[in-house]
Amino acid sequence: DLKHKGHEYRDRAAERRALHGGFGMGPGQKRPIGDASPPSSPPVGEAAAEALEMSFGAGSYAHKILKNMGWKEGEALGKTQQGLREPLQGVGNKGTAGLGWD
């Protein structure tokens, strides 16, 4: 045991967090005991509207393809015009980690 004499455990991860700052809470991590602050997240309605605009806004790739195929805004999809008029809404996975976690 001469090799380990005088050596103590050094928590390098704690030193790194103290030096560079923590990176917040990750998925699946529990808040420390006594931490009553709620987790910060963007407003849901705002984020959903922004995501829809990014994925199907007037300048998006999907929007351009549909326009080139003869689709007009407000019309339903499909040959008989009886398809969807609005994009499908994603359902989040509330309260658990994984896909859709917030």
UniProtKB/TrEMBL annotation:
Residues 1-47, 82-102 are annotated as: Disordered. It comes from Opuntia streptacantha (Prickly pear cactus). The keyword RNA-binding applies. It is found in: Nucleus. Residues 58-102 form the G-patch domain. This is G-patch domain-containing protein. SMART domains: G_patch. GO terms for cellular component: nucleus. InterPro entries: G_patch_dom. Residues 8-18 have a biased composition (Basic and acidic residues).
